[in-house]
Amino acid sequence: MNVIPTSPALGAEITGIDLSKEVSTADREFIVNAYTKHLVLLFRGQKLSFDDLLRLRELFGPPGQAANQLLGLGRKAYLPKDAPDDITIISNITDATGKPIGALGDGEAFWHTDSSFTETPISASLLHAIEVTETGGETGFLDMYKAYEDMPPALAARINGRYANHSKVHNSAGMKRPEFADVTDPSKAPGVRHPLVRTHPVTKRKCLYLGRRQNSYIFDLSVPESEKLLDEVWAHTLQDKYTWHHKWKVGDLLVWDNRCTMHHRNAFSPNARRLMHKSTTAGEPVV
Given CB 3.0 to 4.6 Å as the disulfide criterion, which of 75, 226, 228, 276 pairs with 90? Predict the structure, then answer.
């Protein structure tokens, strides 16, 4: 295998392995070391079943659950009978009756961290491309270590030791989950309390942990004060120098460390077809 960095910011492609086959102990060590260093890994040309995706997630930790499971909402209605509960299907495709076969449609998926609305958010996310678009649908990644380390000291001092609410109400595409009432006051949104700066459990490095901007709220501040501070933090964080954007090809598998990155999807034409399969690795309490 070889490791080829994908950008100066983060990410690396690993070549020379067929992940549909069992991964040896030595190869697992090689992959995990690259994952720890580069935060996002790309494997091209992979032909993977649902079972393969569930097996591969265990290279990075114990089995994780889909967002619906973590929210206590049960199995997604769109899942085909042969899909395990832990699999997520991300797609804008509809079946013969007009029902979606997956989640998140064709719009923008705003910068976010997967499942940060739970007490123990997932650690690794694995996303496999089955059908891709010619234009649009790119996925961007952001290095939250570097964003924190580069933060102006005065701004870092204002967020160190503070906690934010990570709302459950909307998904990453900004669509309201029907199980939750809409909110106009972010301080009242149902969610989970996490520190704005966390310590990675493996590397012990500190990084920003923002979740998603929609309905975020910093505890012990007024809503206007919270909004102002969050705007400053997000403006600093979303600088191009911390990001890498991936253009998908069929067979791509991306794996990212959900604890120290955020990600984003560009919108694409509703007439185009996009189909992705996803699995996750269980995480730890955020500290």
Answer: 276
